Amino acid sequence: MSGILIVEDEDIEREFLATIVEKEVGTAFDVWTCITGNQAIELAKEKQPNIIFMDILIPEKDGLSALKIIKTFLPDVKVVVLSAFSDFSYAQKAIELNVNKYLLKPANPREIVAVLVELIALTSSEMPKEEPEQANYQSFIKEAIQFIEDKYRTQLTLEIVAAHVFMTPQYFSRVFKKEVGVSYTDYVNHLRIKLACKLLKETNYPSYRISSECGFNDPSYFNRVFCNQMGITPIKYRKQL
Q1: Which pLDDT score is estimated for 84?
Q2: Which segments constitute the HTH araC/xylS-type domain (predicted)?
Q3: Residue 131, in any domain of the structure
Q4: Are residues 50 and 157 in the same domain?
Q5: DSSP string for residues in 154-208
Q6: Quick one: pLDDT at residue 164?
Q7: Pair (189, 144) in one structural domain
Q8: Do 175 and 195 belong to one domain?
């Protein structure tokens, strides 16, 4: 299981950050928190997180000192440094440690989420191209399928779904097809045509409205997909009913 470590000694700030992160990642990532620099080093050794949110002014060992040690055994970990100060010396040390982002406190939720999505996508794109079951992506795909089944009637793109589960579009497409057995587009179109058949049977909506109700933005594309799946046009399908 992938994970995110939050290091922050202020209770309100730590709980605030953890709540935002947990809401965004759902069950796809474990989220751990700690207070001191020494705790951060020990947790990083034990859990080996993919991403660390690190406050600078923390007890025992400051955040940058702790990070310098963590980087010796987790050189590729993605790091967001949180600081209440815009002091250039802090930023310079952070750059030397290859920190990915330097946020001034208090960071707003939208900024935190944007950084989180960016780093998760970066982490996913750098992972060795293992078989998806070895890479522990079942939970991502399960969440993606639930999202698709909730949203397929909208203008849902592969990019939107990939962002929802924090993957790059290219990697998500490959993992989805490997796990599910069909491409993302075929899976969504199957759901849409199934709904179209139901609407053709139960309503007198014209074809262009059914196309829109099912999430297609082009009636002619809807007709092509319907014919490919059903072997007949929507109009003839309704007449046969």
Answers
A1: 78
A2: 142-240
A3: no
A4: no
A5: S---HHHHHHHTT--HHHHHHHHHHHHSS-HHHHHHHHHHHHHHHHHHH----HH
A6: 78
A7: no
A8: no
* Cis upstream peptide for 106 (omega within 30°): yes
CB 136 within 8 A of CB 150: no
Rounded Cα gap, residues 67 and 98, in angstroms: 10
CATH number at residue 189: 1.10.10.60
**Which neighbouring-strand residues pair with 79?**
52
What pLDDT, on a 0 to 100 scale, did the predictor assign at position 134? Answer: 47
List the structure tokens of 139: 């939970």
The whole-angstrom distance between residue 167's C-alpha and the CA centroid of its chain comes to 5
pTM of this prediction exceeds 0.90: no
Q: What tokens were used for 22?
A: 């947990």
Mean pLDDT by 10 residues, the chain (241 residues): 86 90 81 94 93 91 90 91 72 76 82 85 64 61 90 88 79 87 94 95 93 92 94 92 82
Domain closes at, from 79, 104, 126 = 126
In this prediction, residue 171 carries a pLDDT of 81
| H/E element, 210 | helix 207-213
Range of the domain at 165: 138-181
Does 118 lie in the same domain as 10? yes
DSSP category for residue 231: S
pLDDT of residue 90: 66
User: Which CATH number fits the domain that encloses residue 29?
Assistant: 3.40.50.2300
